[in-house]
Amino acid sequence: MKSVAIVGVGLIGGSFALALRKAGYRGRIMGVSSPRTIEVALARNVIDEALPLAEAIPQVDLVYLAQPIERILETLRLLDPLLGRGSLVTDAGSTKVRIVETAKEAIHRGQFLGGHPMAGKERRGVEEADPDLFTGRTWVLTPSDPAELETPQAAKFMDWVRRIGAVPVILPPSEHDRVVAFTSHLAQLASTALAATVANQVNTPAHMQVAGPGLADMTRLALSPFDIWQDILQTNTAEIDAALGAYIARLEELRHYLTTDRMRSEFSAAADFAEQCRRMPRT
Asked: Which of 106, 141, 174, 259: CA 20 to 30 A from 215?
């Protein structure tokens, strides 16, 4: 992997560049992004050079798409005439079915391998880029065919994923989207709903002083901007709707259990799962 083009040099794209450098990558890293982002990325030595898409892509053997989902879909439709033979295109999109389907239709000269690093922050932008963002975090790869993982370019990319400290996990695109609807998207919407509910009931300074750290913990994800989540909600609607349905049904059950012994078993089962999440190995 001699050269990389990062399309979208924000939090994820910038962190990927910094993580590569920290892991010993000595190739050239080119950035394709907005003028303001490029200015900050160059000042922080996140990238070596800024180029338009049409100039950057023919020069590299790895294209990393770290844009919002709809922009990734748009970019995929532009790439094929620009790609060199043997190049690899991957992405960081939070939903995978539409991205993988679009890539399958649009990419022919190179190879596409869908990806989703399970890492991030509530704040975005290259200013927040962190070389350790992916350390110990799952990096989901979503080939449409398992044979896609056996190509030399895919093997090299997976090696770099491991070298920056991430943990590769392989899932089909549809399974990825179903699972993240519960493990990621539901958590965001639950946090948003909790913050909105409490905001309607706790509306004086004195009331806010009664809020403990648990509320701050539970509403952390509510800090996430809607313009990041809009594409996720629109490209994984059915799976998110199913996850919300399951969550609402469980809340209704808890409502009925408020004064029964069943609530004890609910607390116990939930605590077991929470402990499991915290013990999950990241190696």
From this structure: 259
